Amino acid sequence: MVAFLDKFFFAFHSSLMIFILFGWAWKRTRIANLVVILLTAFSWFVLGIWYGYGYCPSTDWHWRVRAQLGIRDLPTSYTKFLVDSFTGWDVSQKTVDVVTLILLVFALTASLYTNIRDRRKKCRPSDLTSCSSRRERSSSQNRSSTSRIASENRVTRDRPR
Question: What pTM was estimated for this model as a whole?
């Protein structure tokens, strides 16, 4: 079971990192991507006050699983673990942290930009009214056209044939 959890965390955490970096690119995943990025930033900077900068619960849980497997002497950063594992290099923790932060800021910027752009495209008022008042106006127009059609049907039905 512990070996399964090790593989699970490897797949889950790596997939989560890829989603954070690129989830903004697909319209269907943009809001979820923004939420995950904000949760990640919260973990790094708010939970990081108590657990250390860059704290990630997934890394914490994964390292506990690996400790049960007898694997110790792991870096504090999952990103450093991946970089070192895939390249065979021993990249400095500071370098990994700086690059990781730059990538998070890039992903956050891209996610905010695409989400705001999508919102603006959805709400392009021709006048200076807000999106919500436009929706209200649209729904009242739908109600009035529905009642107009209903009254036309009554008029047609009431005519002698």
Answer: 0.75
